[in-house]
Amino acid sequence: MTHLTITIMRKLICIILFSPIMVFCQNKHFTFSSDYQFDKTYDGSKKESRHTATISFSDPKSITVNGADLEGSPKGYMIFKFKGVDSWEEDIVYMGNNSQGYDIYAITNTQTDNDIIYVIKSKHKIRTKLYNYTIILGKEDQDNMGGLPKYFTAFHCNMIKNDDLSPNDGNYETKNVLYIVTSKKVYFFNTPGEVNSRRKAYLVAGENITGLKDTLGYIYCEFTNLVTKKTSKGWIQKGCLQEVN
């Protein structure tokens, strides 16, 4: 066996052994959109607001070892951006989840007075809008691992982008569910999570659709016009729909 052959074999072994680590040992990346926030302040007052905000999330949870020291844990971040206002970034590490199953992240470097973030995946409705997530930015206290912090801002939101899921890889949650449109006007999209793929076709409040696939905060649906008998298919924002039981 020649020296060149041995060198090539060594390189192939390195690729086989270490490529999976390079692929999988990295943060997952998500983008959320929020149009409703709830504040609980230090003086005990509560305030609702309806500002448009996006949250970019680099999540270290999947590569964090259970019981690891926080200083040596993988780092992530959240970038909060309100429309018309400068963004700010919170550097984070994953702490674990509390007794209610909420994922908790400690803020290690902040541009605000906060030091804790909760990510709660739970379908809930505020007035007529359906949300799938709540991201809580707050101040740590002794009750964190058992409930919510005493002072916080809660961003009620939906996921609009998941960089770890290709829209064309078929990796969707398959469904066959009946929904009713709850928003005044809801447009079809060609691709979930891509705002520029919006079509001219839309549905109006009260119309029923059949949801076939579910991903990234969008439902791939089928709608048949009872008058023209024409069937349309495309992606609809999930927050504009309500599941019919």
Give a written overview of the molecule.
This protein has one helix at 3-24; strands at 28-40, 46-49, 53-59, 76-82, 88-97, 103-109, 116-126, 129-138, 152-162, 173-181, 185-189, 198-204, 208-215, 218-224, 231-237, 241-243. It is mainly beta. The strands form three sheets. The protein has an eight-stranded antiparallel barrel. A hairpin with a 5-residue loop joins strand 5 and strand 6 (103-109). It is elongated, with a radius of gyration of 22 Å.
Q: Spatial order of the strands in the main sheet?
A: 1-3-4-5-6-7-8-9
Low-confidence stretches: 12-24, 166-171
* Portion in helices: under 10%
By DSSP, the count of extended strands is 16
Rg, Cα atoms, Å? 22 Å
User: Which class best fits the helix and strand makeup?
Assistant: mainly beta
SSE string:
HEEEEEEEEEEEEEEEE
Treating each run of at least 4 consecutive H or I residues as one helix, how many helices? 1
Shape: elongated
Topology:
Blueprint: H1 3-24, E1 28-40, E2 46-49, E3 53-59, E4 76-82, E5 88-97, E6 103-109, E7 116-126, E8 129-138, E9 152-162, E10 173-181, E11 185-189, E12 198-204, E13 208-215, E14 218-224, E15 231-237, E16 241-243
Antiparallel strand pairs: 1-2, 1-3, 1-9, 3-4, 4-5, 5-6, 6-7, 7-8, 8-9, 10-13, 10-16, 11-12, 13-14, 14-15
